[in-house]
């Protein structure tokens, strides 16, 4: 099936942006499990993660050669194995921006096998984490996604899926970096998020390109090829491109042989049949020169008559259908006498943003949480979503136009504190139980809960009278 016509855009000088020195706005580098700040070889400062997470246990790895490793890999935070629970980092963000999210996992030993678990951002299921192969190789695993801020806080969570393993999740480091407005702005982040498949610097034989060369610490993996690799020096300005790639990615390239197409199998892994964001970057290796060629992906025309100069350009599609192994083919086009070339590329998978709990219910639950002590460790992130990861004791209705909280079963949880009057704002509630806890204070006015059927408050330390307003709730059958 032919891919749908993509949105193809040619990069131009749009904004006079300079490469960022450091990270702008709300950005976080968290060294998970660390007790003090650390600084890596690039001069980046990593902060302990404890202020941003309320669960988990710190662990220092027994590394034989810690001096050879990134200092953030020397510690990790591990979480208990509680199926259906999610353990979240809560981070302040700008609700009008989008963020690069990169968790890193280093288990430290191949045996026993590392746990498999889910990654969740706000109400969205992102992906399953399986670091087994990297652990066998003694390597760290990183995942990268781009997510919109959907409020003033972003929750990044590790989810315990009972279908995977019988040990709890872990994390070594977490980066959440605010992106500049033009970066990946052709994607509709009202409905979608992006998960990185590959980001490649063609023709490079060096190390991974990242900060400070890349303003957002994106990782550009080298891909050498003795037959087609060419290196040169450019004065390409990063600000000339919407996605602000580091200028150095234009200093290496794959160049086709004269009068022949350049054929790449890239990305190097098979892809499931789905929509992908594809961005390709080009700059002529010869100053004051240009070359023209056509770009095909899996035999479908991606861009015709691309004219590449030494100042560089990029083309990208926001929803290009890919499936299986992918071939990028560059074919010479008249009147060019120079063969085609390519410098770098990015491929992201697109996936839908999950729904969120109705705002009024979510705020009411946060108020209930603040009034209580000894609350469950997984009372973080969205109270209902993603599906299967609601807070302990919270039952939700996901079928309607708004996701509503239907039931609160907090009996025998060892809770203390008081009952927030904001519970009366959760107007879809049919059942409430705080039975057998250590809660004190009065019973709030619940007359707005017109659907309430059961209310269990026994075996606490409540005082005052039973509100007469309970008698106005016609649906109430059990008190």
From TrEMBL:
Its main location: membrane. Keywords: Leucine-rich repeat, Membrane, Repeat, Signal, Transmembrane, Transmembrane helix. Residues 30-348 form the Malectin-like domain. Residues 360-397 form the Leucine-rich repeat-containing N-terminal plant-type domain. It is found in: Membrane. GO terms for cellular component: membrane. InterPro entries: Leu-rich_rpt (IPR001611), LRR_dom_sf (IPR032675), LRR_N_plant-typ (IPR013210), Malectin-like_Carb-bd_dom (IPR024788). The keyword Ligase does not apply. It holds the Pfam family LRR_1. Residues 1-20 form the signal peptide. It is a single-pass membrane protein. The keyword Transmembrane helix applies. This is Malectin-like domain-containing protein. It comes from Eleusine coracana subsp. coracana.
């Amino acid at each position: 099936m032919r891919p749908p016509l993509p949105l193809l855009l040619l990069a131009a000088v749009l904004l006079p942006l300079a490469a960022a020195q450091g990270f702008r706005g709300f950005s976080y580098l968290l060294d998970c499990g660390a007790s003090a700040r650390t600084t890596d070889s690039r001069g980046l400062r990593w902060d302990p993660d404890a202020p941003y997470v309320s669960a988990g246990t710190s662990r220092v790895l027994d590394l034989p050669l810690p001096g050879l490793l990134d200092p953030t890999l020397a510690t990790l935070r591990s979480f208990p194995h509680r199926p259906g629970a999610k353990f979240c980092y809560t981070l302040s963000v700008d609700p009008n921006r989008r963020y690069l999210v990169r968790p890193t996992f280093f288990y430290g030993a191949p045996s026993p096998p590392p746990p498999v678990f889910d990654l969740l951002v706000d109400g969205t299921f992102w992906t399953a984490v399986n670091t087994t192969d990297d652990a066998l190789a003694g390597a760290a695993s990183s995942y990268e996604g781009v997510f919109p801020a959907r409020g003033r806080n972003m929750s990044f969570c590790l989810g315990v899926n009972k279908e995977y393993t019988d040990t709890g999740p872990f994390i070594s480091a977490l980066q959440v970096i605010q992106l500049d407005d033009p970066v990946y702005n052709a994607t509709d982040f009202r409905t979608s998020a992006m998960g990185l498949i590959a980001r490649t610097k063609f023709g490079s034989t060096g190390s991974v390109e990242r900060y400070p060369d890349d303003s957002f610490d994106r990782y550009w993996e080298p891909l050498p090829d003795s037959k087609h690799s060419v290196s040169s020096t450019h004065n390409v300005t990063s600000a000339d491109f919407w996605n602000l790639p580091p200028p150095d990615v234009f200093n290496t390239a794959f160049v086709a042989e004269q009068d022949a197409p350049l054929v790449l199998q890239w990305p190097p892994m098979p892809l499931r049949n789905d929509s992908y964001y594809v961005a390709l970057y080009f700059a002529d290796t010869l100053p004051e020169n240009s070359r023209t060629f056509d770009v095909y992906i899996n035999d479908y025309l991606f861009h015709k008559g691309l004219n590449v100069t030494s100042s560089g350009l990029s083309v990208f599609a926001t929803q290009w259908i890919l499936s299986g192994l992918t071939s990028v083919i560059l074919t010479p086009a008249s009147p060019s006498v120079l063969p085609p070339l390519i410098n770098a590329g990015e491929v992201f998978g697109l996936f839908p943003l999950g729904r969120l709990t109705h705002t009024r219910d979510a705020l009411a639950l946060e108020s209930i949480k603040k009034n209580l002590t000894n609350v469950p460790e997984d009372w973080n992130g969205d109270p209902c979503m993603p599906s299967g990861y609601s807070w302990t004791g919270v039952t939700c209705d996901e079928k309607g136009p708004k996701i509503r909280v239907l039931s609160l079963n907090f009996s025998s949880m060892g809770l203390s504190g008081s009952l927030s009057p904001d519970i009366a704002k959760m107007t879809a509630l049919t059942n409430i139980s705080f039975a057998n806890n250590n809660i004190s204070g009065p019973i709030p006015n619940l007359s707005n809960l017109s659907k309430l059927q059961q209310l269990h408050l026994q075996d606490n330390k409540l005082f005052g009278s039973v509100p007469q307003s309970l008698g106005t709730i016609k649906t109430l059958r059990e008190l």
